[in-house]
Amino acid sequence: MNSVQMKAAAMHWLRFRKQLNYVATECGFWSADVIGCDSEHLIEIEVKVSRADLMAEFRNKLEKHEYYPDPLLAAERHNNKVMEELRNKFPGLPDDHHVIQQQFKWKKKNIKDVANTWYPTHMYFLVTKDLAQEALEIVEKKCPKYGIMYFSPHRFSDFASEHQIHVIRNAKRLRAKGVSEAVRDRLASRMASELIGLRDQLLRK
Description:
This protein is α/β, with parallel strands linked by helices. It contains 7 helices and 6 strands, in the order H-E-E-E-H-H-H-H-E-H-E-E-H. The longest helix has 24 residues, at 181-204.
């Protein structure tokens, strides 16, 4: 069992179980392992094969997992922190001073329309079967809105299938429905690139 098999099964699950029209790997602002969408839903899946791998996700992508549960609130917190740092850097200057406002403009996060971003409507972790219970406990503490699935390979076949995916906790909605055309176009471009890459691999054999 490896992450390549698990990603393939996750793609099957998004396309054939969730009926999403766009499915690709290594795509989005944080380069999701697997991601799929239609006009209303954007579902991200991170594939983890060990406890260390799972913990590294929260350690190395801390900002991502602070934003996903509530991107608007996280942006507000970020901007408040930026302003406080600027006040300390330029003591005595009012907040509306052009120096502070210019630097704040460069550093602030502006999320006017979450549907125009890569923030998913639902987020899942796909793990190995032996890691499932521990992953459930870890994710419950860190991001309780995330869903957990485990991968169970076929006994007599290496082919991927949506039937290899077993959901042990459904993801809760992270935000309202809606995926922008720009996000769908970007995902379609990634799908085309992956298809061309697979064709090239076949021609080399």
